[in-house]
Design brief:
Length: 430
């Protein structure tokens, strides 16, 4: 199976009619492959998801967050110790601020004063994952942006300008390589950009060699039964061993054909489902513990990291606007640009999230057939290095690292795993 491991579904190759997306995806057991195909998990810059659905999926952009939805503790369960009132008062003011730019200023001011990490860690786990979930995720994005800018020694405009110049240089170089001569024409530059865009970050498998379409109906039926059994075992195992990662059976979707077609191990459909196929079913049959990190990667890594916005995508969009002389609001990312400037960042974070849970082998000597976060991090680091102006790579890594250290859900070991990879693969010490 592809080394890409867990991917999210690619966005459509051509823009789809927004009307094709039904505004009713709330029911937890829903499995609509046509809809999964159309949904980009990120609400940012997405021309295919109507605003009403984006608001439902990711929360409204400029309005205060909703009321406290933390469920009451079940009978017999000790309620969590509430944090002191001043721990939440800053967050209440933050949530009440309707302007995103102003919310960014609030976080930047706390970062400058060295207080932001403390603001986050002052909340209880239940608060961070309940009433203040959206606010914390967005604040972490701003914290990451702040650290990225600080490491660059400049501001967003200067970083975007540097990236715009780099992309122009790269396109010119590519056009020249293709025989355009010392001064390529605008058409030749356009052609080079299109080809650079086709350097697919998520490689799809050879469709004629897929396993599922060659199985007989009876064999497919047997696999479906194995899948259903694996789903039951896996959900029960995670809920028993890792109550901090509650998973329902209906959140796990078995779809051998689609997972294989995408060259994935599993993917998050953007609707809080983890879709699995051959690899994860076989891993669960060996030992359900082998698949825990994959489910947490999909349902907690991507879901938590993607709630705010993508720092890389924001910088890239600004760079594209400068490079091509268009307004930021008018920049529409192609699928491949989205993969290389949005998805890769969420994927890095999800590998960090699953790091502590992955085991390479068990006590019975079985080897985990699912790829390790370590093995999967390499291609993401290389993507970052090859897509950004060289002097922006360190600031981007530094921003992510600062965020991982500030996020109470990321362990010290997992943050170190990220820093070790940056040193090992890119020679950058964070
Ligand atoms: Zn992923």
């Amino acid at each position: 199976m592809s080394s890409q491991g867990r991917t999210r579904p690619p966005a459509p190759r051509a823009p789809q009619e927004p009307a094709a997306v039904e505004p009713t995806p709330r029911s937890p057991g829903r499995s609509n492959m046509a809809m999964q195909e159309r949904l980009r998990p990120s609400g940012d810059n997405n021309p295919w998801i109507p605003d009403i659905i984006e608001d439902w999926l990711w929360g409204p952009e400029e309005t205060p967050r909703g009321p406290d939805t933390t469920p009451a503790p079940a009978p017999g369960v000790t309620p969590p110790t509430p944090s002191p009132p001043d721990a939440t008062s800053w967050w209440d003011a933050y949530r009440a601020e309707s302007s995103k730019a102003r919310r960014q200023q609030l976080v930047f001011a706390e970062c400058d004063a060295g207080r932001m990490q403390g603001r986050i860690s002052a909340l209880t786990r239940d608060q961070r994952h309940g009433a203040y979930r959206d606010a914390v995720q967005e604040a972490l994005d701003f914290l990451q942006l702040h650290a990225t800018l600080r490491a660059s020694g400049t501001d967003e405009a200067a970083m975007a300008q540097r990236q715009a110049e780099y992309m122009t240089e790269e396109e010119r170089r590519l056009a020249q390589q293709q025989g355009a001569g010392p001064t390529p024409t605008p058409q030749q530059i356009e052609q080079a950009r299109a080809e650079r865009n086709q350097q697919d970050y998520v490689v799809e498998p050879e469709q004629s060699r897929l396993r599922w379409p060659r199985l007989s109906p009876a064999e497919q039926q047997r696999w479906n039964a194995r899948g259903a059994a694996a789903r039951r075992v896996l959900a029960a195992h995670i809920n028993r061993r890792y109550p901090q990662y509650p998973v329902t059976e209906s959140q796990i979707i078995i779809d051998f054909a689609e997972v294989e077609r995408l060259g994935a191990v599993a993917f998050n459909d953007g609707q809080n489902h983890c879709t699995i196929g051959f690899d994860v079913v076989e891993a669960v049959e060996l030992n359900p513990e082998f698949a825990v990190s994959t489910v947490v990667h999909e349902l907690f890594g991507h879901n938590e990291f993607d709630r705010g916005f993508s720092v890389s995508e924001r910088l890239f969009v600004e760079a594209v606007a400068r490079q091509r002389g268009v307004r930021v609001e008018d920049v529409q990312l192609t699928d491949d640009e989205w993969s290389r400037f949005n998805y890769f960042e969420s994927e890095i974070a999800s590998l960090v999230w699953e790091f502590d849970l992955y085991i390479a082998r068990d006590d019975q000597g079985h080897v985990n057939p699912l790829g390790s976060p370590q093995a999967l991090m390499v291609s993401l680091m290389r993507n970052l290095q090859s897509q950004w102006a060289p002097d922006l790579v360190r600031p981007l890594l530094s921003g992510l690292y600062t965020r991982f250290r500030a996020d109470p859900d990321v362990s010290d070991a997992a943050a170190r795993f990220f820093a070790d990879n940056a040193r090992q693969h890119l020679g950058i010490t964070l």
